[in-house]
């Protein structure tokens, strides 16, 4: 079966090496933030890669030296104001994580510059994560006014331990690539100008290995993540519950106005 990737618009598809497919998030001028189309495509593409007989390994990256600055504010506005959009985005956020986990082919993520939001979700549950030394990784959910859903509860405690996970997820502190590797969130940290070449080198090594052995090993290891599925589902549900509350409106307004948010104390929970 031949897969037609022409329908993907927010994601650019390339073939940088035999049996390697490269997926680049592309939103020029907006640090590759994901709008409605990009969010949907990042959820769906892993099913096509899984079914593509010409692909053994996938490389996920951002275009132009930046990974992704997260969700487009226009998409967030739609999610806040429209129930149907919110449900659709919840389903896509769920599928981004589970489809990467369940894709039989190994996925290598290459992180340069900022890494936030849905793009970060796909990277953190990928199989090998290569980061640049000055890359900036942040799970910005609580600062925006919603629970840390997306991917964080399913993978951060496993990779870096509960103490570090709570620190970074509750406070929205930024990690450099060097710190991400030090605490176990990233597989490799390299000089910024070597991220893509290093990640592609990992892809080429994986291509040369016995494919069944690699895929079965991924499947077995990812049972750790499947076992944490209920934790992920709860975190994602609580995140999207927050999109109907007051904090998200103040968080988005503060972000737009480039000021400190003024969240009101809540006593009901």
**What is the terminal separation in angstroms?**
52 Å
CATH topology group: 2-enoyl-CoA Hydratase, Chain A, domain 1
Q: What is the rounded Rg?
A: 18 Å
How many domains make up the coordinates? 1
Tally of DSSP helical segments:
13
Proportion in β-strands: 15-25%
Low-confidence stretches: none
CATH superfamily: 2-enoyl-CoA Hydratase, Chain A, domain 1
In N-to-C order, the SSE pattern is EEHEEHHEEHEEHHHEHEHHHHH
Task: Estimate the helix proportion, in percent.
Answer: 40-55%
The total beta strand count reads: 10
Walk across the major sheet and give the strand order. Answer: 1-2-3-5-7-10
Task: Label the structural class.
Answer: alpha/beta
Give the overall silhouette. Answer: globular
Give the name of the CATH architecture.
Alpha-Beta Complex
Major β-sheet annotation? 6 strands, mixed
- Compute the average pLDDT: 94
CATH class bucket: Alpha Beta
Summarize the structure.
By secondary structure, the chain is an alpha/beta fold. The protein has 13 helices and 10 strands.
Explained architecture:
There is one protein chain. This protein has about 270 residues and is an alpha/beta fold. The protein has one domain (about 10-195, about 205-255): 2-enoyl-CoA Hydratase, Chain A, domain 1. The chain is built from 13 helices and ten strands. It has helices at about 35-50, 75-80, 85-100, 115-125, 140-145, 150-160, 160-170, 175-185, 195-210, 210-220, 225, 230-240, 245-255; strands at about 10-15, 20-25, 55-60, 70, 105-110, 115, 130, 135, 175, 190. The strands form two sheets. A six-stranded mixed beta sheet has the order 1-2-3-5-7-10, sandwiched between helices. Strand 1 and strand 2 form a beta hairpin. Helix 2 (about 75-80) crosses helix 3. The chain is globular, with a radius of gyration of 18 Å. The termini are far apart.
């Amino acid at each position: 079966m031949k897969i037609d990737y022409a329908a993907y618009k927010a994601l650019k598809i390339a073939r940088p090496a035999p049996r390697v497919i490269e997926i680049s998030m592309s939103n020029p001028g907006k640090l590759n933030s994901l709008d409605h189309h990009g969010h949907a495509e990042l959820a769906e593409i892993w099913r096509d890669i899984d079914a593509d007989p010409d692909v053994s390994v996938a490389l996920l990256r951002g275009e132009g030296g930046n990974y992704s600055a997260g969700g487009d504010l226009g998409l967030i506005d739609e999610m806040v104001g429209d129930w149907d959009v919110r449900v659709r985005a919840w389903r896509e956020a769920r599928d981004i994580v589970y489809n990467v986990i369940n894709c039989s082919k190994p996925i290598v993520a290459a992180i340069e510059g900022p890494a936030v939001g849905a793009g970060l979700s796909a990277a953190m549950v990928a199989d090998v994560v290569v980061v640049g030394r000055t890359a900036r990784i942040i799970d910005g959910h609580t600062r925006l006014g919603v629970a840390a859903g997306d991917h964080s509860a399913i993978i951060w405690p496993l990779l870096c331990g509960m103490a570090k996970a709570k620190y970074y997820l509750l406070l929205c502190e930024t990690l450099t690539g060097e710190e991400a590797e030090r605490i176990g969130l990233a597989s490799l940290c390299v000089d910024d100008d070597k991220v893509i070449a290093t990640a592609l080198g990992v892809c080429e090594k994986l291509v040369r290995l016995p494919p069944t052995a690699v895929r079965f090993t991924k499947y077995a290891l990812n049972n750790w993540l499947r076992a944490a599925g209920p934790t992920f589902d709860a975190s994602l549900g609580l995140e999207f519950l927050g999109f109907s509350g007051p904090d998200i409106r103040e968080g988005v307004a503060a972000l737009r106005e480039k000021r400190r948010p003024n969240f009101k104390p809540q006593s009901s929970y």
